[in-house]
Design brief:
The chain contains 8 helices and 9 strands. By secondary structure, it is an alpha/beta fold. The strands form 2 sheets. The chain has a 7-stranded mixed β-sheet with strand order 3-2-1-4-8-9-7, with helices on both faces.
């Protein structure tokens, strides 16, 4: 029973590391692992606030710069967050942080932590590749939004929450182009691959750990199922 979670940088490190969230998240994961020895988790961390801060600095200092270099800066931020998550999981995570999902070996411990790979997409795509590699039945995408909306609710007062949406309709919302630091519910490149292999993705609020526990234990939860 392998669960793949794309752990958004916006909840691990929205500005600086959210220690309160991380402590509560680790406690929940430990509780679930101890309750069922069959459980395995794969966490793929995003870059969060530090990635955007460093990317903005690069753009400002270089007078624009390139998407490729901005992406590499974001990748490095994901790796710092991933190393932190691996460390706080302690003995449950015995493998090194995965930085290339195309070359990962078998799952050895109870928890595997992965980070960004290379330019051209976000860590969401790595989560999809790892779900495909380990035959997970879905990806859980945790971020700072509780559901996908028909538009950006911060800008569109008429935006409506969506409980379930097809990949075709979701991709029409987010487009197909990846730009470093792009803020969408799920990366367009990851969405394209998930749609191709028929992999569902559930988007839910990362900080709502009561809701996450319901999701992970098969109870009714608040979120958006894509696919």
């Amino acid at each position: 029973m392998i669960t793949v979670i794309s752990l958004g940088g916006s909840i691990v490190a929205p500005d600086k590391v959210d220690e309160q969230f991380l402590s509560a998240f680790v406690s929940l994961i430990r509780e679930l692992l101890e309750a069922d020895e069959r459980r395995r988790f794969i966490f793929v961390t995003g870059g969060g606030g530090p990635a955007r801060t460093w990317q903005t600095a690069y753009r400002n200092v270089s007078g624009g710069g390139s998407d490729d270099q901005a992406d590499w800066i974001g990748v490095m931020a994901t790796r710092l967050n991933a190393q932190l998550v691996k460390a706080v999981m302690g003995d449950y995570c015995t493998q090194d942080v995965v930085t290339d999902p195309s070359r990962v070996g078998p799952l050895v411990g109870r928890v595997l932590v992965a980070a960004g790979w290379k330019p051209g997409f976000s860590s969401d795509y790595d989560a999809v590749l790892l779900a495909e590699r380990f035959q997970a039945d879905k990806v859980i995408n945790l971020s700072n939004i509780e559901r996908v909306y028909t538009g950006d609710p911060r800008k569109d007062p008429d935006a409506k929450p969506i409980d379930r949406i097809s990949w075709a309709d979701f991709r029409a919302l987010v487009g197909d182009e990846w730009v470093p630091g792009k803020n969408v519910p799920f990366d367009p490149v990851a969405s394209r691959h998930a749609a191709r292999i028929g992999l569902p993705v559930i988007c839910a609020a990362g900080r709502d750990l009561d809701n996450l526990k319901k999701l992970l234990t098969g109870e009714d939860f608040l979120g958006t199922t894509i696919g």
